[in-house]
Amino acid sequence: MFNIYGHRGLSSKAPENTIAAFEAAAKVTGLKWVELDVAITKDEQLVIIHDDFLDRTTDIVGEITQLEYEEIKHASAGNWFSSKFKDEKLPTFDEIITFANEYQMNLNIELKGVTGNNGSGLSLSMVQQVAEKLKDLDKSLNVLISSFNIYLVKLAEVHMPAYKRAVIFKAAAFQGDWRTLLDFCGSTIVNIEDAKLTKNRVRAIKDAGYELNVWTVNNKMRANQLDNWGVDGVFTDKADELAHLNS
Ligand code: G3P
Ligand code: MG
Questions:
Q1: Which SUPFAM superfamilies match (predicted)?
Q2: Does the Cβ of 146 fall within 6 Å of ligand 1?
Q3: Residues with Cβ < 8 Å from 226, sequence gap 6 or more?
Q4: Residue 168 Cβ contacting ligand 1 at under 6 Å
Q5: Structural domains in the chain, sorted by start
Q6: Alpha-carbon distance 11 to 7, whole Å?
Q7: What is the pTM of this model?
Q8: Cα 215 to chain center, whole Å?
């Protein structure tokens, strides 16, 4: 089994984490999964965006957790990529559910670590809302919850235990205590950065009985190599070029 995940949608062809990028991914033959990043506003609305700040991927600036949804809902989330996408807005989580049901796509929901002074309260709200909204997802679809933030993965275990959970690691953050971190939040899946990932490390994780996914892999040869090493899946911005590796 080798899964290709469309990282932030088909983010090489459309602005990341927009409905346009998710729809483009859904149209890739054979692709079954998209990855998306969930953040929360000051007034506890879930929006889909990667960075803590709006600056890079929208036409306004500011920190998501310090702004209310009313202040950001009209921002263009696509004009930075191309004027063709100027009407794309930051998707809400409800729109993601609608998208997934319509296109029958599985969801890897990455919970973004919450910044600012109300982090633990907003984190709890985020997880509770995701759990509640996922009740509207078609039962035939698969969900993988993931985060760099162990607290969020632990909250996911408490509030939506039925869904599989992955802990995400930057290469440099993957240290000898990784199994303790996974055990703490009831996870058996490692999502690791590709940087300098070796066959030995892949084998060590797999031989210990864990699932292993790798991000971000945009090179076909590398994806193929990771597949041969026994990796379970890769996140890619170029799902259109890698989807044929799904097995
Ligand atoms: O979950 C894989 C990957 O999305 C993690 O990194 O920074 O792209 O969200 P990032
Ligand atoms: Mg992500």
A1: PLC-like phosphodiesterases
A2: yes
A3: 194, 197, 202, 214, 217, 234
A4: yes
A5: 3-245 (3.20.20.190)
A6: 7
A7: 0.98
A8: 10
